[in-house]
Structures are given as structure tokens and as C-alpha cells.
TrEMBL record:
Record domain CusB-like beta-barrel: where: 227-299
Protein name, as recorded: Efflux RND transporter periplasmic adaptor subunit
Residue stretches making up the CzcB-like C-terminal circularly permuted SH3-like domain: 307-350
Similarity remark: Belongs to the membrane fusion protein (MFP) (TC 8.A.1) family.
Gene3D superfamilies according to UniProt: 2.40.30.170, 2.40.420.20, 2.40.50.100, Helix hairpin bin (1.10.287.470)
Organism expressing this protein natively: Flavobacterium aureirubrum
InterPro entries found in the cross-reference section: Beta-barrel_RND_2, CzcB_C, MFP_Cation_Efflux, RND_pump_MFP
Pfam families associated with the record: Beta-barrel_RND_2, CzcB_C
SUPFAM superfamilies on file: HlyD-like secretion proteins
Keywords, ordered alphabetically: Transport
Transmembrane segments: none
């Protein structure tokens, strides 16, 4: 029985040694399959140049989406403060206009009544002013009582207030009270464009009655149209006012629009965990309309990272590799993960194991071809 235990123990030792040897052989084969060995003549002809990882600042690109927006001061809703019927208009969505241009004409009998009240009050005010001055002189000479003088003064001031209020109502409907007379009373009043721009919406048709609260037209001044981007909170600290970016639409991705960050919101939306970033177009394109979706690419400067020249990276079977120097004539193809690239240099991620290693920074493709030819033999 004791001999049986001894034999079993020796069997397992031998089996373990064989297994360890097989694993070692497997690893050696794997290393050997990725190892390129060159003769001195081959090394000279291949013009291999070696170097080490180099610290560089490489820009990364933040890709986001947004929408073309208009600031409140550039979006105007036009209404008629006293209501009325739309008599005429030439506005259509997309039509351009200039500030001060007549964009519509309104009509209503209340306009006539308002003008009548103003002119009547103005006439009465002239008489009340004369009566007030006359009673003032009489009162000073004790020819009239204080009561009569005070009533004349009250009538004069009341009419003056009424005339001033009616004049402001006339200005609301674009009638100049200073030029109004009984000869130019009109049932129609114009609506003038308050800004330069184009028409966004037309909400009425000719002959329709509108209330004071109804919006007739929506007008847009494109001079300050901007791009409103949604930036996630993890990226918001990477941005700054004045930072440059490019934007493009899905329909014309090749057409880039240069922009600059003007404002970064300090409020993070709780649902999306994002903030709004407002950007100004360097040169506004009239084909870009409010509400249109756009993509944007923002260049971010990173801290110094480990890099190699782009030609040091080779791609084989869908993976990326560097050739690490084993000794003067031996190069081991080593898998790496790459990050951002800029100006002919590529970032190497998780580069700690390669920090002190020499790498083939030139001639890496030649080494890969040599390795492939070796595998085919």
C-alpha cells in the first residue's frame, strides 16, 4: 500500500513537470512567432531606427450635438395692441424685410373713434387752457372766487392728462398725434417692421379679426443666430469661453462652420446631466435656420502623454502593434492600445511597461513583412 502511494505521488510530480514544460513551450512558441531576428546585413538594409516613448501634448476632439437658436432679443412677436382686422400684408415665411418697412395694414372703427376722442379733447384742452389763464388773472385781482379758479384749473389739468393718454394710445397703433388733424383721420393704420430680418411665421390671413393678445407674425433677426450645444457634465470643465470649434449639418458634413464659445451655462439639467453652451458663428451662413440640428467638434488640449511616431504603429489582423527591441538584432511585436493622434504622433495608452524600452520608430512595416514571410515558411 505504501508503494502504491509513492508511485502515485511520483506520477503527479512527473505530470506537473510535463504540464509546466508544455505551458512554457507554448509561451515560447507564442513569443517566437512574434519575434523578428535580423542579420547584420538585413538590419542595415532595413534602415531601422529606434527610439523611446516621447511625452507630448496631443489634442483630443469632443464630439457633441446641438441646435441653431435665436436669442430672445432677436426673436420678435408682432401683435396689434388694440386688436382689429387685418386689411393687407405681403408677408410670407422666409421673406426678408428691413426695419421701418410697412409689413401689414390693420383696419377697425375703434381707430377712428380714438382719433376723434383725441382731437376733441385737444380742442377742449385749448379752451380750458384759455379759461384757466383768465380765471387765474381774475383771482389774482380778487375779481373771481377761489372756487371758480380751482374748478378751471382742475378742468384744464384733467383734459391735459386725457389728451396725453390718448396720444400714447395713438402711438401704440403707429399714429403720430402731432400730425393728426380732422383732415387725415383714417380707419386704417400701418404696422412697421421693428427689426431687420426675415419672417418666421404668419399666423393670420387677410380679413381676420385679431385680439390684442394674438400674435400676427414672428420675425427673426439673423445677425445674432447662435449654436446651442448640449454638453455632459463630465466634459463641461474642459471648455472655456473663447474656445474654437467647427460645426456641420448631417446633410452637408463636408461643409464646416467655424464657431466660438460665447457663454457656458452654470445650470446642469438634472435629467440629462448636461449644460447648455452657446456658440457664435464666425461667418453666419443664411442656409442655417433656427431649429436646425448640427454636429460639432471641439478640440481639447490634453496633458502630456506618451507618444510614438505614426509610422511606428502597424496593424495586423485587426490589432495594433509596436516592435520592441530585444537586443540589437531582435524585435518583438507587442500589442498596444492607441489613443488620440496629432501632427504625426499617436498616443499610447497603458504605456508603463514600455517606458524604458527601445522601440522601432522607423521601419516597423518592414519588420511586419519579415514576420509574415517567416510565418508562411
Amino acid at each position: 500500500m505504501r508503494h502504491i502511494h509513492t508511485i502515485a505521488f511520483l506520477f503527479f510530480i512527473v505530470l506537473g513537470c510535463n504540464s509546466k514544460k508544455e505551458n512554457q513551450n507554448s509561451e515560447d512558441q507564442k513569443v517566437n512567432s512574434n519575434l523578428v531576428i535580423l542579420s547584420d546585413a538585413q538590419l542595415k538594409n532595413a534602415a531601422i531606427k529606434t527610439g523611446k516613448l516621447e511625452k507630448r501634448s496631443i489634442s483630443s476632439t469632443l464630439k457633441v450635438t446641438g441646435i441653431i437658436d435665436v436669442p430672445p432679443q432677436n426673436l420678435v412677436s408682432v401683435s396689434m395692441p388694440l386688436g382689429g382686422y387685418l386689411k393687407s400684408t405681403k408677408l410670407l415665411p422666409g421673406l426678408h424685410f428691413i426695419k421701418g418697412e410697412i409689413i401689414a395694414t390693420m383696419e377697425d372703427q375703434q381707430y377712428v373713434q380714438l382719433q376723434q376722442e383725441y382731437l376733441t379733447t385737444k380742442s377742449r384742452l385749448h379752451f380750458a387752457e384759455k379759461e384757466y389763464e383768465r380765471q387765474k388773472e381774475l383771482n389774482q385781482s380778487q375779481a373771481s372766487s377761489d372756487k371758480v379758479y380751482q374748478m378751471a384749473e382742475a378742468d384744464y389739468k384733467t383734459l391735459r392728462i386725457t389728451a396725453s393718454a390718448l396720444a400714447e394710445k395713438l402711438r401704440l397703433i403707429n399714429i403720430n398725434p402731432n400730425t393728426l388733424s380732422e383732415k387725415n383721420i383714417s380707419k386704417s393704420v400701418p404696422i412697421y417692421a421693428p427689426i431687420n430680418g426675415y419672417v418666421s411665421k404668419v399666423n393670420v390671413n387677410i380679413g381676420k379679426y385679431v385680439n390684442p393678445s394674438d400674435v400676427l407674425f414672428e420675425l427673426i433677426n439673423p445677425s445674432d443666430i447662435h449654436l446651442n450645444l448640449k454638453i455632459f457634465e463630465k466634459d463641461i470643465t474642459k471648455l472655456s469661453i473663447g474656445q474654437k470649434l467647427v460645426a456641420y449639418t448631417n446633410s452637408q458634413p463636408e461643409k464646416k462652420h467655424a464657431c466660438e464659445i460665447l457663454l457656458i451655462s452654470k445650470d446642469i439639467a438634472s435629467e440629462e446631466h448636461s449644460a447648455e453652451v452657446h456658440c457664435h458663428f464666425d461667418n453666419y451662413d443664411k442656409t442655417l435656420l433656427p431649429g436646425m440640428y448640427m454636429n460639432a467638434e471641439i478640440e481639447l488640449k490634453s496633458s502630456a502623454v506618451s507618444t510614438v511616431p505614426s509610422e511606428a504603429i502597424v496593424t495586423y489582423e485587426g490589432k495594433e502593434y509596436l516592435f520592441v527591441v530585444n537586443n540589437k538584432n531582435q524585435f518583438l511585436m507587442t500589442a498596444v492600445q492607441t489613443g488620440n493622434s496629432e501632427n504625426g504622433f499617436v498616443e499610447i495608452l497603458e504605456s508603463e511597461k514600455l517606458t524604458s524600452k527601445s522601440i522601432a520608430i522607423k521601419g516597423a512595416y518592414t519588420l511586419l513583412m519579415t514576420l509574415k514571410n517567416k510565418a508562411e515558411e
